[in-house]
């Protein structure tokens, strides 16, 4: 069994018995590898976002959270390539890294033959003029909403003047040319939108602000209609 197949089989083994644990020794015997190899495989899966954790003790082992996993996704090769093309559009957005991780998970969940066919089809697809991507969004800004903490930023306005702000992140606004972090600006005492390429530095503080709602009127932008993202 090659490593890719073993990683898939390891997740499936933990899924079958979840939420009960399997010991590293049991898994090593099951897949005819060393315990050290199992540890490396589990670490690789954790780094890829698979919800596996270790339970200590004599009856402990590795556990998989069954509520945060999905059965194999039966994407066809054209569907997988369509997703890859769509995710190319995430370059320069707060979701670029998440898009790359999602694509890796998608391919890993496909059957080997379908994944190979998808790679073969993708090699025939070429993108012209996609190099002019938006400036990359700093990682701390991209994670602002999920972190849920006050940001301390340095922001340069259109005239080049730089100010220091404490911002409570509320959302993002995206347009073809720029992405904006929307937040409650403590310096201005109101909701403001910060162009991500003008944020020259950012620090995540330890402060968790009180919840604030982002109201529709906060996004009443005179030069364009704002459309909320939906998950179908």
UniProtKB/TrEMBL annotation:
Domain Helix-turn-helix type: 12-62
Residue span, WYL domain: 139-201
Domain of life: Bacteria
PROSITE patterns, per the entry: WYL
Entries under InterPro entries matching the protein: CBASS_pafABC_assoc_protein (IPR051534), HTH_11 (IPR013196), WH-like_DNA-bd_sf (IPR036388), WH_DNA-bd_sf (IPR036390), WYL_dom (IPR026881)
Protein name per UniProt: YafY family protein
Species name: Leifsonia kafniensis
